[in-house]
Design brief:
It is built from 15 helices and 14 strands. The strands form four sheets. Strands 1-4-2-3 form a four-stranded antiparallel beta sheet, covered by helices on one side. The two termini are 31 Å apart. It folds into three domains: 74 residues, GIY-YIG endonuclease; 110 residues, no CATH class; 199 residues, no CATH class.
């Protein structure tokens, strides 16, 4: 099966490896090494230094006779530059899936993430931990958690707040049923021996489902309102009791990170550094599938203090000296060339530059774009007008529209792989997790302004660290 890759390619001659290796960049990339025959399986990998990695693989060395050598089997090299490890892993998974199918999960060690599953289809619902949430019941699967142990701990602590059953039997309620230790400890409504009505158990199950889907908010709202009312009525003992319950719920809530949501509602935007220094890569996770990257041009966004990482999203786009009306056309063309040129007129960078060229007209017609007072720089030049706020928001909305899900149900391999990639990146230690993640609000709207600030932070990090992978 052909590997889909928007890449650069170069032929490889084992007799003269330096001719091909000398054309490779010393930057991060995902690569594929192809053999002489079409049916040969390619060698697919990722690396922070493409030339260095392939020199070790394709250039024999007498000093390292045990090192893997593929020079005699390779006839073509394809690669694609990447801006982050997240992008590299995502692209590597896509290529391996095209070539090896379900075996790609094993090759990349992408195990199925753990979910807390609410068995709402059972006449007497209960919760359990699973690695295989079904697509049909995605609204009752909550996760992904960092590990099965983390999911089990959350499930156990959440059950302590309710009276839901913990047994795994298919119940046939009968007064002669002996019950269990949880019913004796008053930690279960004991539907097994009809210790409660079916309506009472259904109400408790609905409360548990609401607790899971809102990560405890449904319970906290009620408890906080009761606590505040008791405090206002000077019922301090009742207020203290309710406050203790609030603290218990908050402790359970802390066991479920922000990523833990109903699988059917799990949506996120991930911002990563791009291989293009003038862009930030945007990824969208929706319908259990990861899409991207879409390019968000950072033209018009300037880093105020690159060393501290602070940014100004709506600052001056670029420092351009004013051109007198009497200036020669050649001088104007030379100054305008500072904006750069993109080879593809339809690329994101080219569109951003076109937007910038139309900026003066947009500023005049934009009702909320206030022109700053002229500021003179050290060289005596006048500061350029800032980019309208709505222009950057339109760029972000366009990037999200490009990644919008088509509604097709992903294959089980794709679901597991993309969920595992998202989980692996999200649960990394903060010091090693590069990039930003954003979730929609309760009404499903994206926090565009917060995402634009995140774009500035990602762009600042790329400038500080030279666009590393990590």
């Amino acid at each position: 099966m052909a590997v889909r890759i928007e890449s650069q390619t170069v032929p490889f001659d084992p007799a003269d490896p330096r001719a091909a290796l000398g054309q490779l960049p010393q930057t991060a990339a995902v690569f594929a090494l192809y053999g002489e025959e079409a049916h040969f399986e390619p060698y697919i990998g990722r690396t922070p230094n493409l030339r260095g990695r392939l020199e070790r693989l394709l250039q024999p060395s007498a000093k390292h006779p045990r090192r893997l050598q593929l020079a005699g089997r390779v006839r073509r090299i394809e690669w694609r530059l990447t801006g982050s490890e997240f992008e590299s892993l995502f692209l590597q998974f896509e290529l391996l899936q095209d070539e090896y199918g379900t075996k790609c999960l094993e090759r990349m060690h992408l195990g199925a993430p753990a979910f807390v599953r609410f068995l709402g289809g059972n006449p007497y619902p209960r919760i359990t931990v699973t690695h295989r949430p079904s697509q049909r019941e995605a609204g009752w699967a909550y996760g992904p958690f960092q590990s099965r142990a983390a999911a089990e701990r959350f499930a156990d602590e959440a059950l302590k707040l309710f009276l839901l059953r913990r047994c795994t039997d298919d119940l046939n309620p009968n007064p002669s049923h002996p019950g269990c230790v949880y019913s004796e400890m008053k930690m279960c409504l004991a539907p097994c021996y009809q210790g409660c009505t079916d309506e009472r158990y259904a109400a408790e199950a609905a409360a548990v489902e609401s607790f899971l889907s809102t990560r405890g908010d449904s319970r906290l709202v009620i408890l906080r309102a009761g606590r505040d009312e008791a405090s206002a009525n000077l019922e301090f003992e009742a207020a203290a009791s309710l406050h203790a319950q609030v603290q218990r719920v908050e402790a359970v809530r802390a066991l479920a990170p922000e990523l833990v949501r109903p699988l059917s509602q799990l949506r996120a935007v991930i911002l990563q550094a791009s291989a293009n220094p003038d862009e930030v890569a945007v990824f969208l996770f929706e319908n259990a599938r990861l899409r991207g990257p879409a390019a968000f041009p950072t033209l018009g966004m300037r880093i105020q203090n690159e060393q501290s990482g602070s940014t100004s999203l709506f600052a001056h786009p670029v420092a351009i000296e004013p051109i007198p009306e009497s200036a020669q056309p050649e001088q104007a063309a030379e100054d305008n060339s500072r904006l750069g040129e993109m080879p593809d007129k339809n690329s994101a960078g080219a569109k951003a530059r076109a937007e910038f060229e139309d900026l003066p007209a947009r500023l005049k017609s934009c009702p909320d774009a206030s022109l700053p007072s002229p500021a003179t720089s050290e060289g005596g030049t006048t500061a350029q007008a800032k980019v309208p706020r709505g222009l950057l928001e339109a760029r972000m909305e366009a990037a999200l529209a490009e990644l919008r899900d088509s509604g097709q149900t992903p294959s089980p391999t794709l679901r597991q792989g993309h969920l595992a990639l998202l989980k692996r990146w999200y649960y990394r230690p903060e010091a090693r997790r590069t990039g930003e993640i954003f979730f929609p609000d309760a009404e499903g709207r994206w926090p565009i302004k917060a995402m634009l600030r995140g774009v500035g932070r990602v762009a600042a990090g790329s400038l500080q660290h030279g666009n590393p992978q990590g």
